[in-house]
């Protein structure tokens, strides 16, 4: 692929010890690990109270980070095409559905059922914000941060317009936890604009070559990415904060990986 150049105009993050970009950026610039505490359940401001009460954790984490990124970019979310990327969607709801269908199928909750689809988070977001722009929900397994970033960058360059990118996952439950051992929620969001517009750090993306070395990450980042694959975006956030490596190697699914150059 040829090189893609985009500009980051908004950033959002929510996870254990990292409950805003302002807080996370300060920690990342100082090379500090966040406090080893679980984040309180998100209360995304753009979701109505009734929706927040019934929305699953995947929706809450994704919408929280997305709202922060849009606010920083000073962009109306109703106008933004969006790419939402997740390893497996809501595993806790999938576990509930499997358990209920195997035991008492007539008690299956219609609300739980419609929340089980992989595009539930982007659906809630589109409805809450009144967004009629195109939306994409995708998975590249545990490489969904890289896969989603690539898709969002392609859309921003091709459409010559800003695109919202959100990567998120929530804690797993039941037998599926042996396959997807996530035990916390985490989400990261970026508003990506064409490189020629706005202000903010520029990202240059190209396909990584076999000679490109994987990006070293702090021990706490590696540990958090095991707990939730969306935390694989932390080295990128560190670079955007002005610390850590400026040339990143980010897996994007299968044998595909990205070389990402972060330019202030």
Core attributes:
264 residues, alpha+beta, Peroxisomal Thiolase, Chain A, domain 1
In short:
The protein is of the alpha+beta class. The chain has helices at 21-29, 49-54, 57-73, 91-103, 110-115, 120-129, 144-159, 219-227, 234-240, and strands spanning 4-14, 82-85, 135-138, 163-169, 186-194, 202-207, 247-251, 257-263. The protein has one domain (4-263): Peroxisomal Thiolase, Chain A, domain 1.
Could you characterize what this model shows?
With 264 residues, this protein is α+β, with helices and mostly antiparallel strands. The protein has a single domain (4-263), classed as Thiolase/Chalcone synthase (Peroxisomal Thiolase, Chain A, domain 1). The chain is 35% helix and 20% strand. It contains nine helices and eight strands. Strands 3-2-4-5-1-6-8-7 form an eight-stranded mixed β-sheet, sandwiched between helices. Helix 3 (57-73) crosses helix 6. It is globular, with a radius of gyration of 18 Å.
Secondary-structure blueprint of this entry?
Layout: E1 4-14, H1 21-29, H2 49-54, H3 57-73, E2 82-85, H4 91-103, H5 110-115, H6 120-129, E3 135-138, H7 144-159, E4 163-169, E5 186-194, E6 202-207, H8 219-227, H9 234-240, E7 247-251, E8 257-263
Parallel strand pairs: 2-3, 2-4
Antiparallel strand pairs: 1-5, 1-6, 4-5, 6-8, 7-8
Helix pairs in contact: 3-6
């Amino acid at each position: 692929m040829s090189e893609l150049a985009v500009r980051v105009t908004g950033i959002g993050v929510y996870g254990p010890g990292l409950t805003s970009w302002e807080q996370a950026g300060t920690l990342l610039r100082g090379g500090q690990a966040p406090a080893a505490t679980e984040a309180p359940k998100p209360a995304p401001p753009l979701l109505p109270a009734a929706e927040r009460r019934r929305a699953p954790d995947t929706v809450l984490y994704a919408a929280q980070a997305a709202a922060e990124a849009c606010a920083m970019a000073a962009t109306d979310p109703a106008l933004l095409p969006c790419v939402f990327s997740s390893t497996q969607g809501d595993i806790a709801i999938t576990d509930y559905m499997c358990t209920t269908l195997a035991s008492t199928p007539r008690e299956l909750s219609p609300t739980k059922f419609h929340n089980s689809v992989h595009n539930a988070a982007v659906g809630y977001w589109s409805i809450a914000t009144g967004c009629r722009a195109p939306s994409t929900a995708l998975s590249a397994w545990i490489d969904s941060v890289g896969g989603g970033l690539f898709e969002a960058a392609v859309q921003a360059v091709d459409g010559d317009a800003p695109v919202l990118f959100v990567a998120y996952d929530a804690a797993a439950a039941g037998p599926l936890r042996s396959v997807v051992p996530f035990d916390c929620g985490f989400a990261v969001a970026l508003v990506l604009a064409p490189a020629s517009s706005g202000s903010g750090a520029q990202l240059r993306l190209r396909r990584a070559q076999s000679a490109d070395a994987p990006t070293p990450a702090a021990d706490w980042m590696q540990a958090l990415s095991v707990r939730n694959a969306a935390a694989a975006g932390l080295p990128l956030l560190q670079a955007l904060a002005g610390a850590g490596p400026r040339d990143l190697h980010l897996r994007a699914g299968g044998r595909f990986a990205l070389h990402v150059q972060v330019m202030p």
